[in-house]
Amino acid sequence: MIIYSSLEAEHTSIPLIVTVSDSTEILNVDSTSNNSKNNDNNDADNTDINTITKSIVSTFSANPPVLALTRAQLLALLEYVKTNMLPSYLSHLAKSTQATSVGAKTPSVSASSVTPNNTSPTSVPLIPAPDPQAFLIGSLHTGLFSLLQQSGSYTISDPIPNIRVHRFDDPPYYKYFFRRSDFSPEAESGRSADLPFADLSLPPGYRFHDREGREGVLSKHLDLVQSRTHIPRPRTQLSKIPGMAVYLDSTPSDADEMPIAWGFLGVDGALVTLHVEPEHRGRGLAVPLSKAIMRRGMAVDGVFGAGSVNSEYSQTRERVGAWAHTEVAGYNNASRRVMEKIGGQVLTTVTWTVIELLD
């Protein structure tokens, strides 16, 4: 379920965010909860996290009656989901668990076809699944989250009655927005349709396709992709969302060629799972890769392009695909710098939170 609100555009207030200085790419842009409050997976050894002194949080500047109405509408939405949608979801989970138990007693012929993403020594531990009775809400405006706190403060966890907050991100995520001119300038609109990424210069020795000329992340690469992110992303989802990959020229011709960097546009059009393998970081791969991903998804014939909209109004079609976005942890200066180089602007802050509506 994806919910939109005009309140964010009309009443968002955010302090000035200073741009970050050049730094080495430590890329794995993904919405995460590793820095969440009430989360046992906090990385105590992460210097960037521990040096945070003050969070930048966007709020709503609306008057009290508007905020009260917004809180009531948000609670009504949660109540509706719990009453009308949660029962069928819990029933589905129960049936899936039962089917898994039966399958474990009678294993299939190809038991090795499903590989957990933590089998590799370089795999990243997955974020624990939320309580089935709770709601995982992604990209929630920090102003909306604050309305669920008695204090009205984002950083002080004192939920209003009948609300239990299992976890939220502190500091929150900076939401970067990119105009089409940032990732696909109009001046380049005359480029060959057969070579849509020709103007995106990768460093010598790197390319946007494998030895056979295939672009994007191939199905045989998805195990690798899953092993590098702690966000549980099913193979079926990764195979359907637009993505791009970078390959290395020096890979032996007789070897199974694997990408050294990749990324996708998620189900809401956000740049996600942007990753560069450690030995290839700091070489200027992230910016052209990010632009290529946005172009692929936002192109006229892309998943989020004008061709996907059934509208007779030219103005509406022109607006489709005009913006891309992503979310970066406030402490991740390397990834923030990449987004700034592309031209992204922080217009709001968001959190990925797990909330339970109590009886």
UniProtKB/TrEMBL annotation:
Superkingdom to which the source organism belongs: Eukaryota
Listed Gene3D superfamilies: 3.40.630.30
Coiled-coil ranges (or none): none
Transmembrane segments: none
Entry-linked PANTHER family: GLYCINE N-ACYLTRANSFERASE-LIKE PROTEIN
Record protein name field: N-acetyltransferase domain-containing protein
Organism, as annotated: Penicillium thymicola
